[in-house]
Amino acid sequence: MSRPEPPAGAVRQGSLREWNLTLVLDRIAAADRPPSRAELAAETSLTRATVSAVVEDLVTGRLVTEAEPTPRTGAGRPARGLVLAPDGPAGLGLEVNVDYLAVCVVDLTGRIRHHTVHRADLRPVSPAEALGRLAGLAARARADAAGQGLTLAGAALAVPGLVDDAGRVRLAPNLGWRDVAVAALLAGHPPLTAHVEGVPPLVVDNEANLAALGELHSGPPGPASFLHISGEVGIGAGIVLDGALFRGARGWSGEIGHMSVRPDGPACRCGGRGCLETYTGQEAILAAAGLAGADLPADTATTRLAELAAAGEPAALRALQEAGTALGVAVAGVVNLLDLDTVVLGGGYAPLVPWLRPPVLAEISRRVLTAAWSPVTVRPAVLGAEAAAVGAAGSVVRRILARPAGWLARHG
Ligand SMILES: [Zn+2]
C-alpha cells in the first residue's frame, strides 16, 4: 500500500506528529480487522517505534483501544489488534423538521448511543421556541452520553431548508423560516459540546445533505455515486458523486422537491407550479389516500398507509402509484443529467418503497436513454427516518478522525 505524501509544512515537528497521528488513526478506522502495531508500521512505512508512540498517544486520548485478542494457532502470544475506542469523543446530531425534532449521539465507531425523536407540528412554533425545545433534548442527550463515558466533541444540525455559509437558514419553506440565525439562537442555551480544536461547536446543514452522508457512511460500502431522496413533508435530495457530497456552487443543490413535474400543476408553497412536492410530499400522498383528516402523526399515518397498501386498499394503492409516477419523472431527469445508477429512498419514503419503486422504475425505463442496457437500482435507505440526525452526528465524528491532534490537545 502506498503512503500518501505529508501535507506542505509537515517538516515542522508539531505538524509531523499531527500527520502521523492522522495517518495511523485513518488506517485503524479503515481496516477490515484490527491491525497490530507491526502491521500499521508496514502499511504506513513508519518505524515500529514511531507507530508505538503514536498508538500510545491515541490510546491515552481515548481515540483507540486494544481489541479483544484473537487466539493464535501455534506458539507465541495472541495478536492484539487496535480498534477505534467506543468510549471517547462522540458527535451530537440534531434535526429540526416540519413535524419532529431529533437528537442522536454517535460514537467514534459509528454506533448510535442515544436517539430521541420528539413529534410535534413545528409550523405554528417560532424558530426560537423550536430551537429551545431542541436544546432541551440535546442537554438530556449530553447527560446520557456523559453517563456512558462519552464526551460530545461537536454538533451538527440538520434543517429542511437552504443554509448559507454562515450557518443561517435562508429559507425553509415548509417550516415558514426565513433568515433564521440558528447558531445565535442556540447560543443562548448552555453549551452542548466540549471545545475541541478543529471541530466547530455547531455546523448547520441541509437535512437531505446530512441524510445522504449518513447513508454513504452506514452499512457495508455501497456505490460511490447515488441520489438519496428524503421524503418528509418536503422532499430533499443529497447528490453523492465519487464518494463526496455534491453541494453545488453555493451549497444549495438537491432541491428536487421543487423540480416541476407538471408545469401547469397546482401552486406550490415556493411560488412555483406543479412541483414534485405537491404530488409526492408526505402530506400530498396522505391526502390522496384519504388519510389527511385522520389526525395522526406523519410517521403513524405513513405506517397506516403502508398497511392499507399491503392489504390492497384501492385508494392507498392509487395514491402511491400517482406519487411514484411523479417521483419517477423527477428522478429520470436527474439520472439523465448525472448518469447515476442508484437511487436511495429515505426518510418517510423508506416504508413505502415496495409501492413507490415500480412506478419510479417505470418512468426511469420510459425516460432515461441508457436504462435499456444500464439499469438503475431503486432501494430503501439503510438508515430509517433518523438518517439526517445520524448523518449529522457522523459528520462530527469524521471531523475528529480527520484531525485527532485537535482532540488530543485537550483530552490526550
Ligand atoms: Zn415548489
Bound molecules: zinc ion
Helix count from the secondary structure assignment: 13
Strand order of the largest sheet: 5-4-3-6-10
Write the element-wise H/E pattern from the N-terminal end onward. HHHEEEEEHEEEEHEHEEEHHHHEHEHH
The proportion of strand residues reads: 15-25%
Provide the structure class: alpha/beta
Radius of gyration: 23 Å
**Average pLDDT:** 91
Alpha-carbon distance between the two ends = 29 Å
Estimate the helix proportion, in percent.
Answer: 40-55%
Specify the overall morphology. Answer: globular
Largest sheet: 5 strands, mixed
Tell me the number of strands.
15
Q: Flag low-confidence runs.
A: none
Describe the structure.
- The chain contains 13 helices and 15 strands.
- The strands form 4 sheets. Strands 5-4-3-6-10 form a 5-stranded mixed beta sheet. Strands 13-12-11-14-15 form a 5-stranded mixed beta sheet, with helices on both faces. Strands 7-8-9 form a 3-stranded antiparallel beta sheet, with no helix packed on it.
- Helix 1 crosses helix 3, helix 8 runs antiparallel to helix 10 and helix 9 crosses helix 10.
- It is globular.
- The protein starts with 12 loop residues before the first helix and ends with a helix.
- The model has no long low-confidence stretch (mean pLDDT 91).
- Zinc ion (ZN) binds next to loops.
